[in-house]
Amino acid sequence: MLPLTTTRASATSLRHLVAHPLRRHASTSTSTPATAPLASFMSSTTVIERKGRIVILGSGWAGYNLARKIDKSFYDVTVVSPNSYFSFTPFLASTTTGTLEFRCATEPVRSIEGVEYAQARAESVDFANKTVTVAPASLSDHTKVQRDKSDATDVALLPEQKLSKNYDIPYDALVIATGCRSASFGTPGVAEHAMFLKDVRDARRIRLRLLQCLELASEPNITDDERRALLSFRVVGGGPTGVEFAAELCDFITEDVDRLYPRLRGLASITLYDVAPGILMSFDGELRHYAEKKFARDGVTVRGNSHILAAGPDWIELKKADGTVERVQYGMLVWSTGLSVNPFVNSLKGVSKDPHTHSIHVDPYLRVIDDQGKPMPHVFAVGDNSTPDSGQRLPATAQVASQMAHYMHKKFKRLSMGKAPESIGPFSWKNKGSMVFVGKEQALVDRSGSTVEGPKSKLSGFAAWFIWRSYYMTLSMSWRNQILVPMYWTLAYFFGRDVTRF
Amino acid sequence: MLPLTTTRASATSLRHLVAHPLRRHASTSTSTPATAPLASFMSSTTVIERKGRIVILGSGWAGYNLARKIDKSFYDVTVVSPNSYFSFTPFLASTTTGTLEFRCATEPVRSIEGVEYAQARAESVDFANKTVTVAPASLSDHTKVQRDKSDATDVALLPEQKLSKNYDIPYDALVIATGCRSASFGTPGVAEHAMFLKDVRDARRIRLRLLQCLELASEPNITDDERRALLSFRVVGGGPTGVEFAAELCDFITEDVDRLYPRLRGLASITLYDVAPGILMSFDGELRHYAEKKFARDGVTVRGNSHILAAGPDWIELKKADGTVERVQYGMLVWSTGLSVNPFVNSLKGVSKDPHTHSIHVDPYLRVIDDQGKPMPHVFAVGDNSTPDSGQRLPATAQVASQMAHYMHKKFKRLSMGKAPESIGPFSWKNKGSMVFVGKEQALVDRSGSTVEGPKSKLSGFAAWFIWRSYYMTLSMSWRNQILVPMYWTLAYFFGRDVTRF
């Protein structure tokens, strides 16, 4: 076994962080390790001999990336998130069909050396006393264990009130990166019946449902019309997420389902809806046209100008371009449009928020603006749950979140070097362009709006697909996934996708 | 993409098989493909131009192996099983800790070329009319989809009564291979609270619970004693399954948990219980001693002569060797002893059964004995759910099930060549010896009781472990898994195991 031990020192010193009344003896007996010259920079009144404590709320693109980058020899870092992992969103669509294994799209937070992790949800923040109150999430809904013969059960091993007791985590700097969740714009029935695609659990759910639809449609007691209804896959939202999912699904059906379920050949259909006239509206017109032509050729139906009015367990009602209302059946409905801030940000007091999105106002240095209109020096908001108070709205993308994480990392680094953090200047987003996979070894790469150096190129087809794969593969966080991802791509190419449902 | 098309011919002709009233037009319009000279060998009265129809109930070691081996150009093969996959049981313990990915221990039934699969449970057999009645299982409990905010939901897409309607499958030859399920010997509380390890879903459940215990124990509001209770892993059954699970768990704790959860170091414990005085009682004494010494050194406690009296959500009550009764706490209880035939075999009418195990009596040619004491020429029982009426009981192992599948394959082959199937002689089991993994790159190989050619060797330690891995790797069914398994072993070696819980 290679020596992969954790930096014990930082892990030990972090014990101070968490309010840990019953184990206080353990933490007080350990001496504070490593030099931390600027440990108390942020609390200018009290100078104590310990590292600066950074608490990050959230383990998404912003939170996870920041936790990875911060120099743990200078800071004690705690990540608070109900998810013990980061979801690598560009690969989620691939995992829904089995092109990639689910774990290829995740990175465990605990694998970041020197970072303390609390499986919990932030409840509230006491800005005056610099404390976050969190609610444990180890027993939360999504972790329930399924059993064969009963409903989801979850044996509480200790009196639940004990485990679900909230606790406090003190911070010197707080970074709010709780992101957004999928939103249904209040469309009735969507929250109950649609599938989303924000997290690896969503992807697993889609995969189970997809394979279930195939088995249901294979039963002999139903008509071909009923089979067609079961195999109607409807995707709402023509942005990159919806398009990539439709593309993966189309590949899965033509490359695997037709072979493994020969009886169902020709019965499946994929329809993509959007309120806009077409799909991928943020892309260059020429590329968009390419994608639409490709989908038309592959049999993926695109329905622009469509408003979904309501959803039931197996139908959606929609208003078409000509104003008529139509009700269509589905076997699986995937909702990939709309975002809203999560309940923690919604309930957060003492900060200024955007009246429309309810996201947190930040100044150009990503400092949270308090309800008096002043930036708080120790509290930051990054990623989808933040909005510059300048009014310039940034896209809610992984690219923006990652760049904000990188900016925060540089600020913290500057602090640890004894410099003023704001001396690096305000945050500015660099548009690196966008990419989307459109199926069958083809993709689009659009750098026409790019604000970084390099060619302002537009590319479609196989070469773009090659760039898509290469880029995301190298963006993978761990060596583990940098090895596994191309391995699974190769296996899917030679042996097809796995249809095991368990 | 490589050409991996199914033999369309056999898939089409199989449509005749399934009672498919609503699609009759589709099947009658296709001509029967391929020559099938001995198609009607088994129904000696009616001679019709079609292939012989073999229906296999079950997708375990016996059923899956038989379905794979049968020559599909001579037979139409249908597999009926609630599980759309085969569980490669030797790797299940490795998947509980993440040494291997779950899918490394599964093979999808639908990937067998030319085999028709019905996700259903056998309900009853009409031996006179050669028909099996099956109940669809596509909507069954274990396939329920979990959602974040609610209990397990499973949207019935069509009126449920329609999908759950039983249907009939006619056969020329029926092979009953439904196997056994885990049994608790009526010990109160075990069925509700214990984890089992027979299937990949069991393995997933164990992994989720194990990781949940680690997160629960990481919460700050509890005492170290409560942590020790949460991290008490108790395994009942000292056979190869229990021993391999304890070994994998011990490796996981020392190699990964101590590194990723430094705060929990020294708090976890593993205890293995058996009614026998020790573990691995079917192994040679010297090897057994080696395993016990190794477990003692690694801190895995072995408690022989222990009878479990009852189990609760976090405790078991047991009678010790000295007759005293003790109640101990656990965080996870894994029950790996005892088997019972499944409900279908229990309710099956018209066949002779073993009065103790309720398994089906077969003659030396594996033909099922009817309730008049006569072998049925077209009905066979293989694997754990069969018992020779001679009284000689065979071990309920993968080895026996595989050999029975191979024997049946040879019989069907002989039939297709125009020979009498019984001319190959009675089934006889060859003991090839046994192997067990005991942790930390060590295993036992015991061929001292072997009845096949080769050295009657006993081996323990690293060399035995090397043989263990090599043997099972080559035994893997698909190319896919023959590539993935060593890849995951290598990744676990270099980067440790993944602790993502979703």
TrEMBL record, chains A, B:
Keywords from the UniProt entry: FAD, Flavoprotein, NAD, Oxidoreductase
Pfam families recorded: NDH2_C, Pyr_redox_2
SUPFAM superfamilies: FAD/NAD(P)-binding domain
Residue ranges of domain FAD/NAD(P)-binding in the record: 53-405
Ranges where the External alternative NADH-ubiquinone oxidoreductase-like C-terminal domain occurs: 432-498
Tree of life domain: Eukaryota
Keyword Transcription regulation: no
GO CC entries: mitochondrion
Sample GO molecular function, one term: NADH dehydrogenase activity
Gene3D superfamilies assigned to the protein according to its UniProt record, in alphabetical order: 3.50.50.100
Entry similarity comment: Belongs to the NADH dehydrogenase family.
Name of the molecule in the record: NADH dehydrogenase
Species per Swiss-Prot/TrEMBL record: Vanrija pseudolonga
Lineage: Eukaryota, Fungi, Dikarya, Basidiomycota, Agaricomycotina
This protein's encoding gene: DDB_G0270104
